[in-house]
Amino acid sequence: MITGWWKDTGKKEDLLHASELVLSDLSEKIRGEVIDTEIRGAVTVGVGSRVVDSQIIGPVVIGDNVEIVRSKLGPNTTIGHGSHIHDAAIEDSLLMDGAEVSNWKLRFSLMGANTRLTGTPAPGFVELTVGERSEIFGT
After folding, report:
1. Domains along the sequence of the chain with CATH
2. In this structure, are residues 133 and 115 in contact, taking their beta carbons and an 8 Å threshold?
3. Where are the beta strands (DSSP E) in the chain?
4. Cα separations (Å) of 112 from 38, 45, 76, 84?
5. Which of 55, 73, 91, 116 is the most buried (most CB within 10 A)?
């Protein structure tokens, strides 16, 4: 017998909603390095991670060995281990391990493991679903 909530995560929307439900119970735990960064709400920063000149609005989970520079994250965002985020804005999104994002604004997005978003994207926020080991280059 299952008690509590249950969510079928077969669709992107359901997976993002399940992630939001899990993040709602998050407590703050900063184990990495945070420099010149504003943190509001429940935020977890993993071991070996470095967050510089950024704004993090919880709930947000940042995995181990992640680099975030000049970016805005959250709310309801998870960044997987070993990811690199530069000059980006990411809201209500789930990025798996090894994701790289430079110069993009993401909302309601799901990025598989070892994906890259670089270059100059269209202005404003975009909503993406990107499979693992994919690369998208803006114009």
Report:
1. 12-137 (2.160.10.10)
2. yes
3. 29-30, 33-35, 38-40, 43-45, 50-52, 55-57, 60-62, 67-69, 72-73, 77-79, 84-86, 89-91, 94-95, 100-102, 105-107, 110-111, 116-118, 129-130, 135-137
4. 27, 20, 17, 14
5. 73
Q: Which residues contact 124 (CB under 8 A, 6 or more apart)?
A: 105
Whether the CB-CB separation of 62 and 43 falls below 8 Å is answered with yes
Strand partners for 73: 56, 90
Tokens linked to 132? 């693992």
Of 90, 84, 94, the C-alpha closest to 104 is: 90
Tokens for 80? Answer: 């997987």
- In the three-class reduction of DSSP (H, G, I as helix; E, B as strand; rest coil), residue 74 is classed as coil
- CB-based contact 115:130 (threshold 8 Å): yes
Q: Mapping DSSP to helix (H, G, I), strand (E, B) and coil, where does residue 116 land?
A: strand
Is residue 69 within 8 Å of residue 54, measured between CB atoms?
Answer: yes
Decide if 128 contacts 108 (C-beta within 8 A): no
37-70 residue pLDDT tens: 999 999 999 999 999 999 999 999 999 999 999 9
> What span, in angstroms and rounded, lies between the C-alpha atoms of 129 and 29?
29
